[in-house]
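Problem 12. The chain below contains 139 residues. Write out its predicted structure in token notation.
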Amino acid sequence: TGQLKAYGMIQNRSGEVIRRFTVDLLGTWENHKGKLEEDFLYDDGEVQRRVWNLRKMADGRYSGTASDVTGPAEGVSSGFAFNWQYTLEIVVDGTQWAIDLDDWIYQIDANRVINRTQMTKWGFNVGEITLVIEKVVSH
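Solution.
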């Protein structure tokens, strides 16, 4: 819940950093339903927006949808870790691809998490995303 700021990079399957980005996030929850608005700014100037509609279910499980996500995303929380899996539609060199993402989000403290994402296509590694997300604390 609240405003967050994220800093990240995308690496190709060889480990080369191919993009860097920042994200402004706004999360809201009411009962068991949430919304997460993500505004991305990439180092090449591209901007992107993704809005997640989230639902908290029993036993630490979550589901979510977004316009560029195929089918529902599914997640499970356990202790300080959260695993979030989904298929993201992305465009690479003018071609649209469905890439499977496997996010592992680790809580570092009350205001920070580190997110590591493996990206695969047809079961093969195509890249990785590393992201630090911080809660924006008002003074």
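Discussion. The chain has a mean pLDDT of 95. Students who got a different answer should revisit the alignment rule from Section 12.3.
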